[in-house]
Amino acid sequence: MSEPKLTLDALFCQQRLQTKSMNVWHWLVFILYFPVGCLLAVLRFALVFVVAIMAPEKHRYQIFRYIGGLRCKTTSTLDLPKNGALIVANHSNYLDPIVTNAVLGKRQHLGTVIWHGVNFFSRVICRPTVSVVDQGGNRGFLKELYKANEHHNMIVFPEGAVTDGITGLLQFQRSVFHLRKDIYLVGIKYRRALPFLQGRAMSRMMGIEVLVDLFQPWIDVELIPLGKLQRELYASPQEEADAAQRIIADALGLKASRWSKHDRHKCLFPE
Description:
Helix content: 25-40%
Number of helices: 8
Shape: globular
Largest sheet: 7 strands, mixed
Oligomer: single chain
């Protein structure tokens, strides 16, 4: 359960450049690298779109990782069926779909469930995608997900929005836990070459935040496979969602908060 003192702001970095933690050496490296990083970010972003159109589906994400400088490491792997399974993970970056399939023992492409509408970037890079409708359309969403799951294993980020992965996780949404599918849990942790710089999850322009990470010379990504979720016969979908959140949060050393994507949305888009 969450701690009462955990505020919503504590889940998010307030600025991209962590100036308070930077020393003279950090500033020198940053200033000298800045023009190179800007060029690298733009080139990577453009190359990813070209590869997304041309590369075979099976190898698409692996090529993306090479282009983006994403160095994935995992202590073990997950063995999934050919299709019909869901991978549930924390969501701290728009690059998460690209790195997740590196945890698989046998290479395969994964479809992606997206909560906040399928933007152009996601539609091209992460296809096939399934979009969640928050109100009044979950039956249609689950039907679409079930159909997509017949041909692809699917990645699900049930927080429904990104956090910075520094303190805690948003509450997992229960929608996908209505499906009696095999669910495999994965924790994702990023270690940036320039640790004083990272994109902000509390941002209205997530495309810019992706460029901030593509600016990095490289990023080490730790994937923590946590096995299959043991589903209880009489547990409610929300109880199972909460159990999955706690398992992933514990593996990452984070807190399982009760703050939701709706709270983040209200903070990001105040009325």
